[in-house]
Amino acid sequence: MFQLILNGKYFLEEKKAVISKIEFHLFRLLCGCICCCCTIGLSLCPVLCLNKRSKHAVSKVLDWENARLYHKLGLHWRLTKQKCPNNAVQEYVLMIEFRPPLSLSHPD
């Protein structure tokens, strides 16, 4: 049901474009993690920096897309940290929240 509500709100191409931008930044982080495994943890410091940089880059992409399109449609994308239910690990999740849409008759 949630998917039907979202499909009526915005185009599938727009969603795919945002997800591909986010995947690009996460791919860079994955490459850093693979390098860390190959060097037996010696390259851990650059991976930590990439982690912060990737979170910041994903947040910037989401902020830009929210301001450009999604706030006008009454949606807000954000990156949030959630605890996994079965263990103490925390993961980052893309959240889509419904907000009252901005009036299209008023200038930005």
Question: Would you give an account of this structure?
Answer:
This protein has 108 residues and is an alpha+beta fold. The chain has a domain at 11-73. It is built from three helices and two strands. The chain has a two-stranded antiparallel sheet. Helix 2 packs antiparallel against helix 3 (44-70). 6% of the residues are buried. The model has no long low-confidence stretch (mean pLDDT 75).
The biggest beta sheet reads:
2 strands, antiparallel
How many H/I helices? 3
Number of strands: 2
Please, what is the average pLDDT?
Answer: 75
Task: Sketch the topology as an H/E string, one letter per element.
Answer: HHHEE
Structure class: alpha+beta
Neighbour order of strands in the largest sheet: 1-2
Q: Which strand-content bin applies to the residues?
A: 15-25%
Low-pLDDT runs: none
Rg: 17 Å
How far apart lie the N and C ends?
32 Å
**Share of helix, binned:** 55-70%
What is the approximate shape?
Answer: elongated
Descriptive tags:
57% helix, 108 residues, 2 strands, two-stranded antiparallel ribbon, alpha+beta
